[in-house]
Amino acid sequence: MSVRRIFIGVDIGGTFTDLVLADNRGAIHNIKTLTTTDDPVRGVMTAVRQGLDEAEAAAAEVTRFVHATTLPTNLVLERKGAKLGLIATAGFGDLFHIGKQHAIGPDRFNLSYTPPPPLLPRSMVAEVGERVNAAGAVLRPIDRADAERAVRLLVDRGAEAIAVCLLNSYANPVHEAAIGEVARMVAPDAYICLSSEVWPEFQEYERAATTLISAYIGPTLANYVGRLEDALRGIGIDAELQIMQSSGAVMGAAMAARKAAYAIESGPAAGVMAAAHLAREAGRPGLVSFDMGGTTAKAGLVVDGEPRITHQFRAGGGTSAAGRADAGEPIKVPVIDLAEVGAGGGSIARVDTGGFLRVGPQSASSYPGPACYGLGGTLPTVTDANVVLGYINPGYFAGGSMTLDAEASRRAIEEHVARPLGLDVVAAARGIHALANTAMAAAIRVVTLQRGIDPRDHALVASGGAGPIHAVKLAELFGIGTVIIPPSPGVRSAWGLLISDLAHDFVATAIMPATAADPVRIAGLFAGLEDKGRQALAHAASAETRIIVQRSIDVRLAHQHQEITIPLGDGAIDGELLARAEADFRTVYARTFGVRPKEACQFVNFRLRISAVVEKPAPVVRAWGDGAADRARRGVRPAWFEGRSLATPVYDRILLEPGDRILGPAIIEEPDSSTICPDGYRASVDLHGNLLISPVRADEAAGPEDSDEAPVDRTLHDALC
User: Fold this and answer.
1) β-strand 241-244 against 191-194: which pairing, if any?
2) How confident is the model at residue 560 (pLDDT cuts 50, 70, 90)?
């Protein structure tokens, strides 16, 4: 028998910390614990110890440890990052602040618009005399004494982290490197962040914002990963700690500490990577990824088995979304194209001063949590509504590790929602459930309809502890005909960590006419980027490691400023390959915007991703069963569907086999989630263990039995209309 190798993935959410422990022999163990918001390391180590005990594994057998965390996002949203200082080229110290004066998104029409507070005041910006032109030529050398003066000025004013963003440093980083050297000598305790190291791409405001975000979250993230590494070493885990990037790739903890902006959407990215893996495994090229946890819901898109990547993400606004002009700071590093809204199982329901029902974005988090947790929470949440509707088994929550108080849910909804609206408790719970679906639909709308993509052409894959409860009704809103619930959906993001490869992204800006592009120069640019990538992977890749290099070019029309990233493909870089890139750009442009201009094109940015393919957990081998789903039937309990309380069969998902079919209404339970198959739908199990839920034909429908509970007489619609 081969030597046992264990892989651990840990994803920290706002409510739960999820762990998946898998090995090279096909064993999988899932752990779900409450997030310890006061000290996330403590919650992670609790889950790790529990996982090792359950698997009867030794810490020394762990060969890979991958982690995703919401810490970077929360630091930006809550404005709890480091005190910043910025060093800029003389005459350009106001660049970052001027860039924040222009109203964007919905605020373009707000006559009372007030710019959001910047990450740092103007007094924390120091200027240095230097100048490099757009071609990289030094026009004015830097004075090291001037650089030292700027650093000391910021340190004396309390800067804990210093970002350096000089004009045109993407073309020549020599001056930024000099300032970095001076800063590390003058201020050894300060966190130093250079734009030419973080992301050397043109567009000064965006590059400055990316660098400032990295500096803002860097000290806290570096401290966190350092403490986690120490804790892991303390119990005997010597595997390198790896962190999920926003792009869906994985990087070492040391790089995460230096380039913190790369982890700004660490947690949500893992869920989309899991969906992409499912798409490839099940032969479904297009999927809408939907991940609903305790605090937020995330949506992403998988096309041809791969997640969409964007370089137009904004972090720190009310709604995180790629490719939309909304509040927040622009991030130029690659990020999976996703949208996130403040609607999760812990989202609090309330009646506003106008008498309307609201759900979220405020969350009960893990402490005090929903009313049903019994940890001190008294406000009603989406989870409380699902308990009242019968969708969640109070005695089997989190696999039975928690017992929920159903009466506390009813009391909270009665006091805070039902009574103020003049409804009964069930009608109020139905309203909370439906309103949460409406809020989450906004995320799906952003990544599909607002991108010109018809969601009806895709299946919806749902994950997160609460996702399978809401998935079918959410799909109905968009006319999506197939819903896929993967095995163990409540810890799916943690699983996504284990199937993600180690990778690094690099960029070089060189604007040139497409028709006059020099293949030799472009080949040299890509060769330089590849050398950097191979050096970055050197410590993690052995001679036997498979290395994948992916090249792409940002192309735009000569008189437009928006680029489209076009994959370059393999082969030598010559005129034919570059002409094909231009032709592909025109095809994508026509498909996206409906017109095909004849205007000349420009090549703008040259991008390269280099990946080291890592060992994955052994696949779970399944065989077709006999189709008799009754073996998994646990019993019957009342649950509410379309205003009726129906006697609903409950199934144990662990006992289901490929080929089993279940007619709704049905509830399919597993330790980390519950799946709702409503009346009028059918669920089947495929060879990979996924639940496939779709509407039944008229000749398949079976009439559900009413339970003894009376139907709802007055709906939320009746109360509000």
Assistant:
1) unpaired
2) very high
Are the C-beta atoms of residues 110 and 94 closer than 8 Å to each other?
A: no
As a dihedral over the C-alpha atoms of residue 219, residue 164, residue 327, residue 383, rounded to 10 degrees, the angle is -20
Cβ neighbors of 353 (< 8 A, separation 6 or more) are: none
Q: What are the phi and psi torsion angles at 81 (to 5°)? A: -80, -170
Model confidence, pTM: 0.90
- For the stretch 697-716, pLDDT in tens is 755 655 555 544 444 443 33
Residue 412 has pLDDT above 90, yes or no: yes
> How far is Cα 1 from Cα 10, in angstroms, rounded to an integer?
28
Encode 438-488 in three state secondary structure: HHHHHHHHHHCHHHCCCHHHCEEEEECCCHHHHHHHHHHHHCCCCEEECCC
Phi, psi angles (nearest 5°) of residue 211: -65, -40
Look-up of token digits 């860097």: 218
Q: Residues 458-512: pLDDT tens digits?
A: 999 999 999 999 999 999 999 999 999 999 999 999 999 999 999 999 999 999 9
**Per-residue pLDDT reduced to its tens digit, 6-43:** 999 999 987 889 999 999 988 999 999 988 988 999 99
Out of 302-311, 346-355, 533-542, least confident range: 533-542
* C-beta separation of 40 from 22 below 8 A: no
Q: What is the largest CA-CA distance in the chain?
A: 84
Q: Which residue matches tokens 């019968």?
A: 390
Mean pLDDT to the nearest integer, 329-341: 90
Q: How far is the C-alpha of 28 from the C-alpha of 222, rounded, in Å? A: 30
- Angle among Cα 622, 626, 629 to the nearest 5 degrees reads 95
How many whole angstroms separate alpha carbon 208 and alpha carbon 163? Answer: 8
SS3 389: coil
> Rounded CA gap, 640 and 661, in Å?
22
Q: Which amino acid is at 711?
A: P
Cβ-contact 160, 191 below 8 angstroms: yes
Crossing angle for the helix pair 575-593 and 519-537, to the nearest 10 degrees: 80
HSE, CB side, 13 Å, CA atoms: give it for residue 288: 35
b/e string for 573-584 if b means 16 or more Cβ within 10 A?
beeebbeebbeb
Q: What is the mean pLDDT of residues 167-181?
A: 97
Tell me: pLDDT of 593 over 70: yes
Calpha distance 272→337 (Å, rounded) = 9
- Give the three-class secondary structure for 510: strand
Burial class (CB in 10 A: 0-12, 13-18, 19+), 481: middle
Q: What's the pLDDT at 569?
A: 85
Domains of the chain (ranges, CATH numbers): 76-222 (3.40.50), 502-612 (3.30.1490)
Residue 704's closest CA among 673, 677, 686, 672? 677
Q: How far apart are CA 363 and CA 365, in angstroms?
A: 5
Q: Return d(Cα 613, Cα 546) in angstroms, integer.
A: 6
Task: Dihedral sign for Cα 424, 428, 429, 431, please.
Answer: positive
Strand locations in 173-238, DSSP E? Answer: 191-194
Q: Which long-range contacts (CB under 8 A, 24 or more apart) does 535-542 make?
A: 536/255, 536/504, 536/610, 537/502, 537/504, 537/610, 537/612, 539/252, 540/240, 540/252, 540/502, 540/612, 541/502, 541/612
Q: Among positive and negative, which fits the CA dihedral 521, 525, 528, 530?
A: negative
How far is it, in rounded angstroms, from Cα 346 to Cα 359? 10
